[in-house]
Structure to design on (265 residues):
């Protein structure tokens, strides 16, 4: 079993253990509080806040310093090339979502970008497609489930993975299963490649979120609630195949396995 799958199942087990504390439902004679409770759709908020605190400790001790060092050591063109390669490697996930949603025009563009960027762009280092105004987009099984009419389910925050919902968590697992990189790779060289790809995805995603997460920590009275709202805004726009609104940041220092970064790939 690949390391990304181990993280998914390990984090899921941790979440199930800690999701024992439920938020108290407001009484029926307080309609405003009851409405807010329903809109938040966060029935496990007490436990989610504990998980968020665990994530924040890990992030500030490990992920953030690692991302800052990555930015300090590598110049912007090199980081851009790495990000382009990682985005190119997500083509199977994006293309699967396009096809399962019946978005054949987007699927055509996704496949075309992959061919052009892999060949002319030298393995995806250069985003040649964008130079010709053919931009990438984010797609995953969570978005596909939403397009099929599956409700988002309850909100959940998972250490390392960041904010999610029941639908997106299942979608994340489906992305892992459907990704050929999960199953291809027997032997030290291919295993090392998969671990390197996972590590670079973590560092690249966290580096892209340095300013947004720092701003949330400095300006928000309740970072947990702010990130919950921002995550839902971002996902709503992605599901509608629109650009994310200003302020709708990516997962809170999470690695972005299922969704990646909102920036067009």
């Amino acid at each position: 079993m690949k390391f990304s799958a181990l993280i998914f199942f390990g984090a899921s087990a941790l979440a199930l253990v800690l999701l024992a504390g439920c938020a108290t439902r407001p009484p029926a004679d307080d309609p405003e509080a009851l409405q807010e409770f329903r809109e938040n759709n966060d029935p496990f908020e007490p436990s989610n806040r504990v998980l968020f605190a665990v994530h924040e400790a890990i992030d500030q001790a490990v992920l953030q310093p690692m991302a800052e060092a990555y930015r300090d050591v590598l110049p912007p063109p090199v980081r851009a090339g790495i990000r382009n390669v990682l985005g190119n490697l997500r083509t199977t996930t994006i293309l699967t979502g396009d096809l399962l949603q019946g978005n054949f025009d987007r699927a055509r563009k996704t496949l075309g970008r992959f061919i052009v960027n892999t060949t002319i762009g030298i393995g995806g280092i250069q985003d040649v497609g964008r130079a010709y105004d053919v931009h990438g987009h984010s797609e995953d099984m969570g978005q596909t489930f939403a397009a099929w009419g599956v409700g988002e389910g309850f909100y959940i925050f998972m250490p390392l993975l960041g904010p999610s919902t029941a639908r997106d968590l299942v979608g994340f697992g489906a992305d892992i299963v459907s990704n050929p990189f999960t199953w291809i790779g027997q032997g030290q060289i291919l295993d090392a490649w998969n671990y390197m790809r996972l590590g670079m995805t973590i560092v690249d995603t966290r580096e892209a979120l340095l300013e947004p997460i720092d701003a949330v920590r400095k300006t928000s009275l309740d970072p947990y609630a702010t990130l919950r709202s921002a995550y839902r805004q971002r996902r709503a726009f992605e599901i509608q195949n629109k650009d994310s609104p200003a302020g709708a940041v990516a997962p809170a220092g999470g690695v972005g396995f299922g969704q990646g970064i909102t920036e067009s790939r």
Observations:
- Confidence is low (pLDDT under 50) at residues 251-265.
